[in-house]
Give the backbone structure.
Amino acid sequence: MSSYDSYQTPLATRYASKEMSNLFSLKTRYSTWRKLWLNLAIAEQELGLNITDEAIEQLKAHVDITDEEIVAAEKQEAIVRHDVMSHVHVYGVSAPAAAGIIHLGATSCFVTDNADLIFLRQGYDILLPKLATVIERLSQFALQYKDMPVLGWTHFQPAQLTTVGKRATLWIQELLWDLRNLSRARDDLGLRGVKGTTGTQASFLALFHGDHDKVEKLDQRVTELCGFSKVYPVSGQTYSRKIDIDVLTPLASMGASTHKLATDLRLLANLKEIEEPFEKSQIGSSAMAYKRNPMRSERVCSLSRHLHSLLQDALSTASVQWFERTLDDSAIRRVSLPSAFLTADIVLTTLINITSGLVVYPKVIERRINAELPFMATENIIMAMVSKGGDRQECHEQIRVLSHQAARVVKEEGGDNDLIERIKKTAYFEPIWAELEHLLDARTFVGRAPEQTAKFVATDVAEALKPYEDVIVRSKVELNV
């Protein structure tokens, strides 16, 4: 039987990066359990328990689990029906000098929950540089096109002009908030630490013969050995599942930002103004050879919606935990937590690819502006006529009549907007004929969009990206498709 004979999640097999897939792999999970058992033994030895140096050295020598040991643990689990105890047994076989002290005083959640918290923080460490990379590449795009006028849209109806670069800053600003939120959530994570079966540390108090100070030092020392600066002061058997809400909320919120960005790109692709990269040999449709579907942006939208949905798992699970713990959280967390990070990883990796090669079509943008700008310029034309001594109300009526005639040509006859030609043929407007070219210069309709873009990138973006200057993904990202 091959791997093709059973279901495999496409999150791991088709899309996610190797580093994120590896983080949530069985080998990483079980090796992390062993590191926790090693850290517990080190701390307990330091605080005076009878644990030999030989035991510590054997634990260190076998801290990275092998494929053979995983198979052995699976066989043991089939006998004892307990995953953690099966791994305690197999680790003890590999480190016989430590067999009697592995998991000393601990409950299963010592390894399962602490390991989850480690994975969540490491997951953020993978995501944050990728999000910073998307922001950096969009920022370069924004600067490149900060001066290029483009038709703005409100209600997806033509509105006043903006610039291609300024529009990109709207995407960037939301992603900056996501960068802040992910960073805060990452730094807010603590370790469950050494709390015992119901969180009272009773087993450790017994090990240290009632010495409360040593129990507290054990908690802190294991936390330090695991690379955390803080430990949750109280817990039941598990860390509060409300922490999972805090972890998944910024990811779900980021999914809203990425969905909006990718949706805009899909609409722009339909307008033929901006397209995502299209590879030389890429096929857009099996039937329609001419098509250039925005498949990457569609993937971002699809998986961003999945990312939203996973937050509900955390909300529902946290709300139904009973007293010190219940086990109905276990199965769903095995699915939703890895899925959230794998999905976020795929979304960001795809966006890195997209933002590394956005294609802009200036002539299409210019043509669309020219089709709408005459209507937008009518107020400027009225003001220009008034400055030449014209009557504002009379001028307004003249423009209204000509505008409706031009609109009828566009909507009913499918013709081009000929309002300016009509103005040039109407003697009433002869005083401003020579000024029409200036009055219709698109660059005069974008306000401070170029200046806003330049300042935003130079200040807000630059400040936010400072911590990530050395970890922004510089090389071309190849998608696993």
